[in-house]
């Protein structure tokens, strides 16, 4: 591990343009369970609660589960050391941007400024009738699905449901960032979901070196990763940070 950490430090120091690509694993140490793997959310709940039609025609059934999984859980979550190290690297010019699949807002709360939310976010809702946005902080969350204050229509959380389009500017900007990266750091993602999991392959194809941080091997480890650091993001990133300082 020590050699791999040293190699990672060298890559980070020598990179002219570094992009981080994060998934649910980076927020596990903040108390938010991952979707897959041991005690993953999808082993306990049906992912189809995030099917748009099912929500539109049956929100009385899916909304209480969505509220529990994505709002009650996230409510008290705080950024962990992994989020904080990435924010410090951005401030010191060692990291240019983050592409995250997460909707928990923890990168922003840790102080990261350049964050592309590939699957949207949980800070606001969109009305499925009039299209107006409504902030979470202006919306009372009850056991029935929230309704639009302007037209009374059904509100949907502003993260993508299965089958929905990837939001802009994240969709096109992520492809650009992958093309610009000299170094691409993949943190805490199974790489199971497309099109998000195509982004690291684009970076590799464009010539980026790849560092992967994960508690277990996955789709990227033996295909595109140049350095694989096995372990918790919240412990590995501070270890790298120590050697950089
Ligand atoms: N540190 C680093 N990696 C971790 C940690 C940790 N502490 N804990 C778990 N992991 C790894 C797991 O090994 C797994 O590879 O994080 C990954 C989490 O994978 P998923 O739960 O599949 O999450 P993610 O890859 O972000 O899922 C992508 O799927 O359901 C959709 O929209 C949802 O954005 C999500 C997308």
Brief characterization of the structure:
The chain has 8 helices and 9 strands. The protein is an alpha/beta fold and 245 residues long. The mean pLDDT is 95.
Compile the SSE list and pairings.
Layout: H1 2-14, E1 18-22, H2 41-44, H3 52-75, H4 81-91, E2 97-100, H5 106-110, E3 115-117, E4 120-127, E5 133-135, E6 155-159, H6 170-180, E7 183-187, H7 199-205, E8 209-214, E9 227-230, H8 233-244
Parallel strand pairs: 1-2, 1-7, 2-3, 7-8, 8-9
Antiparallel strand pairs: 4-5, 4-6
The site of adenosine-5-diphosphoribose has 24 residues, from strand 8.
Structure write-up:
By secondary structure, the protein is α/β, with parallel strands linked by helices. It has a domain at 1-31 and 78-119 and 165-245: Rossmann fold, CATH 3.40.50. Helices cover 36% and strands 18% of the residues. It contains 8 helices and 9 strands. It has helices at residues 2-14, 41-44, 52-75, 81-91, 106-110, 170-180, 199-205, 233-244, and strands at 18-22, 97-100, 115-117, 120-127, 133-135, 155-159, 183-187, 209-214, 227-230. It has a 6-stranded parallel β-sheet, sandwiched between helices. It has a 3-stranded antiparallel β-sheet with strand order 5-4-6, with helices on one face. Helix 4 runs parallel beside helix 8. The protein is elongated. The two termini are 19 Å apart. The relative contact order is 0.19. The site of adenosine-5-diphosphoribose has 24 residues, from strand 8.
Q: Which descriptors apply to this entry?
A:
six-stranded parallel sheet, 9 strands, binds adenosine-5-diphosphoribose, elongated, 36% helix, 245 residues, Rossmann fold, alpha/beta, three-stranded antiparallel sheet, 18% strand
């Amino acid at each position: 591990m020590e050699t791999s950490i040293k190699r990672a430090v060298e890559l980070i120091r020598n990179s002219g343009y570094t992009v981080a690509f994060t998934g649910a694993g980076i927020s596990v140490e903040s108390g938010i369970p991952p979707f897959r793997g041991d005690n993953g959310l999808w082993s306990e709940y049906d992912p189809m609660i995030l099917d748009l039609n099912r929500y539109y025609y049956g929100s009385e059934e899916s909304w209480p589960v969505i509220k529990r999984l994505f709002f009650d859980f996230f409510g008290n979550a705080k950024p962990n050391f992994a989020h904080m190290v990435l924010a410090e690297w951005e401030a010191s010019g060692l990291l240019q941007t983050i592409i995250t699949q997460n909707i928990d807002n923890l990168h922003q709360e840790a102080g990261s400024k350049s964050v592309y939310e590939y699957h949207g976010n949980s800070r606001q809702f969109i009305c499925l009738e009039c299209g107006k946005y409504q902030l979470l902080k202006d919306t009372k969350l009850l056991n029935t699905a929230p309704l639009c204050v302007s037209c009374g229509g059904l509100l949907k959380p502003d993260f993508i449901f299965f089958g929905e389009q990837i939001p802009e500017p994240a969709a096109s900007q992520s492809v650009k960032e992958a093309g610009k990266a000299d170094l691409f750091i993949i943190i805490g993602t199974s790489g199971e979901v497309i099109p998000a999991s195509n982004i690291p392959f684009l970076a590799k194809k464009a010539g980026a070196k790849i560092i992967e941080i994960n508690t277990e091997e996955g789709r990227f480890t033996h295909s595109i990763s140049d350095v694989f650091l096995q372990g918790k993001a919240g412990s590995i990133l501070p270890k790298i940070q120590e050697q950089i300082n």
